[in-house]
Amino acid sequence: MKHKYGGSRRAFLVSTVAGAAGAVATGTGLAQESQKPEEPAAAHAHDAVGKLGAFLNQDDSATIDAFTERLMPGAPGQPGARDAGVLNYIDLALAGAYADLRDFYRRGCAALEEHCRKAYSKSFAQLTAAQQDSVITAMIEGKVQSFTWPTSQAFFNTLRTHTMEGMFADPVYGGNKDFAGWRLVGFPGAQPVFTEADMASREAFTRGPILGLQAQTRRS
């Protein structure tokens, strides 16, 4: 399966999982410029944003939920951003570690909605998947005139980075629900011990259980 925004889905995942998990663990996953199917996604976004979160309002939550799902769409047997709770990760991050990006997100969401209302008379979350992809492509190419600061490319890049973090960081940060991202790429998570045979093997690691910081905290 080709990923809409760069290479095969699996290659895209494998190439980003380590950096995304490491970035959120150290708090360095911020975009540099941040310092100055055919059904409407809204039909699915309702469940994800039914309750207001830590920072995002309901409209911005619906926009980000739909946007991140197009960046990392789910498929049968392959969880996407919505399955992994990426929206919750971003919401919690904006309420805490990424608080300096609040205005960046507010302005970016407002510019995106302004464009969609003018072009389609609908919000981004109400567009079909094909229309959403068209909007995202225009953002990447810098052709969405409603963006000033942040630029459309900066907003896309930041959302892409945070989507990867929400997919693959330890679940303690609010994303990677039920280890969806780790299971997707066959990452075993934190283990009590790796044997010499485990370290020497070239086969996929399958011995469980998968443990995250959250699970380890509960055990201690």
In terms of topology, how is this protein built?
Elements: H1 9-26, H2 42-48, H3 58-71, H4 81-84, H5 86-95, H6 102-120, H7 129-140, H8 152-168, H9 180-185, H10 196-200, H11 213-219
Helix pairs in contact: 1-8, 2-3, 5-8, 7-8
Structure, described:
- This protein has helices at 9-26, 42-48, 58-71, 81-84, 86-95, 102-120, 129-140, 152-168, 180-185, 196-200, 213-219.
- The chain has 220 residues and is mainly α.
- The chain has two domains: 9-187, no CATH class; 190-220, no CATH class.
- Helix 1 packs across helix 8 (152-168) and helix 2 crosses helix 3 (58-71).
- The radius of gyration is 18 Å and the shape is elongated.
- Residues 6-43 have low confidence and may be disordered.
Strand count, sense and barrel status of the largest sheet are:
none
What is the molecular shape? elongated
Percent range of helical residues: 40-55%
pLDDT averaged residue by residue: 78
The structure class reads mainly alpha
Number of H/I helices: 11
Number of separate structural domains: 2
Termini separation:
41 Å
Q: How are helices and strands ordered from N to C? A: HHHHHHHHHHH
Strand content: under 5%
**Number of DSSP strand runs:** 0
Supply Rg: 18 Å
Question: Which ranges are low-confidence, i.e. pLDDT below 50, for 5 or more consecutive residues?
Answer: 6-43
Keywords:
220 residues, mainly alpha, 2 domains
Q: What is shown here, in short?
A:
By secondary structure, the protein is an all-alpha fold.
